[in-house]
Amino acid sequence: MSMPLSKQIVLVTGAGRGFGAAIAAAFAREGARVAINYRNSREGAETLAAELGEHSRTFQADIRDKDEVTRLVADVTSAFGAPTTVVHNALADFTFNGDARPKLDTLSWEEMTAHLETALKGALNLIQAVRPGMEKAGFGRVITIGTNLVQNPVVPYHDYTAAKGALLALTRTAAAELGPLGITVNMVSGGLLRTTDASSATPQAVFDLIADSTPLRKVTTPEEAADAVLFFASPWARAVTGQNLIVDGGLVFG
Question: What pLDDT digit, counting tens, does each position of 94-145 carry?
Fold first, then answer.
């Protein structure tokens, strides 16, 4: 079963800024109704909703909290109908600055779990909350956001990358369980994006190095990566599930 993007009800977590905002804007451009979830970025979320128009609304919730996620999905359902599509983009407070990252000799378990709580627990909460509506409809699209650092840890952000690696595993196991219900589960893994709040602390030399290392000789933008998210929600991906699409200008192959 497939559904045109223009008929979809899309919930994007962490959409008040950065890559999440670009994903929300991409779906809105295609005519979808878009639920912009945020935790703290209220001003950015409300500004984005105003820009995207009447088919977009903001919804505050901390996706680490199961009860809040249940409320979030209920609120979206009241406003637009049951979500057909969920994009799990939310990121724990983080800055991509290799010089400031915690090394293995100082990394704490608390720093690891901060990312696991958002990436992995957040995904579990979302899947559990949207599953009943998707199962009833016989249709659902779950898209997680990963990182090419799992394949190529050029800067070893241990906490962030480990959490995204776990999210990739959940993406694949969820795809195996939910497929018979008509629900696909896929991941889009970007590289360093130019520029988001999280990557704003990245030195210019790193952007230049990444650009020179890609076949396309450029750093991927949030808008370019967001378009790849649309693919997994679109009718053209109706036979695709359990996949991880790396969108980084060819820096990492496969």
Answer: 677 677 788 999 999 999 999 999 999 999 999 999 999 999 999 999 999 9
DSSP 106-120: T--HHHHHHHHIIII
Range of the domain at 81: 5-192+222-246
* CATH number (domain holding residue 125): 3.40.50.720
Question: Has residue 254 been placed in a domain?
Answer: no
pLDDT tier at 213, thresholds 50, 70, 90: confident
- What is the Cα–Cα distance from 208 to 143, expressed in whole angstroms? 29
Residue 247, φ and ψ in degrees, nearest 5: -120, 90
Q: Which two tokens stand for residue 27?
A: 């779906």
Q: What are phi and psi of 241, to 5 degrees?
A: -155, 155
- In this structure, which long-range contacts are made by residues 234-238, counting pairs with CB atoms below 8 Å and at least 24 apart in sequence? 234/2, 234/5, 235/2, 235/3, 235/4, 237/184, 237/186, 238/1, 238/2, 238/184
Are 121 and 163 in contact by the 8 Å Cβ rule? The answer is no
pLDDT in tens, 153-188: 888 899 999 999 999 999 999 999 999 999 999 999
